[in-house]
Write a structure and sequence with these properties.
Chain lengths: ~220, ~220
Amino acid sequence: MSRAALLVLADGRFPAGGHAHSGGAEAAVKAGRINGAASLEDFCRGRLNTAGLVSAALAAAAALGVDPALLDSAADARTPSPALRVAARRLGRQLMRAARATWPSGELDALARAFPKGAHQPVVLGLVARAAGLGPEDAAYCSAYESVSGPATATVRLLSLDPFDATGVLARLAPELDVVARAAADAARNVVDAGVDALPSASAPLLEIGAQAHAAWAVRLFAS
Amino acid sequence: MHLDHTHDGASAVSADARRPDGSRRALRIGLGGPVGSGKTATVAALCRALRDELSLAVVTNDIYTREDAEFLLREAVLPPERITAVETGACPHTAIRDDISANLEAVEDLEDEVGPLDLILVESGGDNLTATFSKGLVDAQIFVIDVAGGDDIPRKGGPGVTTADLLVVNKTDLAPYVGSDLARMAADAKAQRAELPVVFQSLRTEAGVTAVAEWVRERLAAWTA
């Protein structure tokens, strides 16, 4: 395995469609809940410990070799908002396309055949990590980091926030990211024996509600 | 980006000329250029000129709305199922060049759902003079500028003006009103582009999109040869 593969996969420029999504930041900006670096940090902390934890655990479980179809159903059950389910599957499909070209793998081909319109992105991410020779912690880190880097980048565009301030937010969240990634990997190891009910199910109702409202806007910069 | 062909695919990847079932995919032509230069109007005119002889579809990349897609729908240039809008997260050039996944998905879905298709036009959101399409997304690209945007644009060059397979200088009917010198634009374009073709057009005249449509037919003939 190459540890540097994690850098390739976690790079914000990895061409898997993430640039068109704000991770809920666009809805939060419009509602006034994000209006600067401090509130961006609050938002990211909330997302990291809810949606971020759940997606990191899904990714880690997929990286461990847990049946991706079971994980996909578990992801559906943990995503009440139909708009977020659509976004997660679209991003999963786009990641699948990029990953099959970069780390060809029979497991990825099988998942693409089973879910031609896309499985949930964290599930795909976990299998991609596996194809790249990475482990469950790596997958969890990657997913947890995406859960905050997406909104931070989007907020730079939405508010013309100073990019140094946005990057400072991510740096300050790093210790909490460690905690979430470890918890997610631990939960994933429990899934191997106890089944997908051992996955965390933390939820952020405002993210779900905001995503539903956002999907109905006529004018928006981001797809979600 | 090519799949190892030992991996059979549920989805085609990027520039491969064949679809997963072995058939040849549609020719994909990108249209880029600055805001307001007439990309959507050119796409609409191309659809009207070609829809009776070709099976075609359009992907639009709006910056923050579905306006371009809705314009095409309102003008009824194609049935609605043949027009798809891609959202670009405030970065239209990223979606056509650096991370083409959403556009590839749109192209692939169109071929699956309304195919077989001969031609897919991929229209970029209005952007700057450096915006070009990835070769993984399109087979050829048209850059559309207009005389009212300043007759110094061909001289300034940039990747769009210099490298596009076809440069279209649109709205020539406005040249006298905005003081643009068409001869100078033609000379500057020639200097930037050497042998690459340039079309001057006004969609308000009878000739309209004829020259661009003819160029598209030639590309299609080369693609299917």
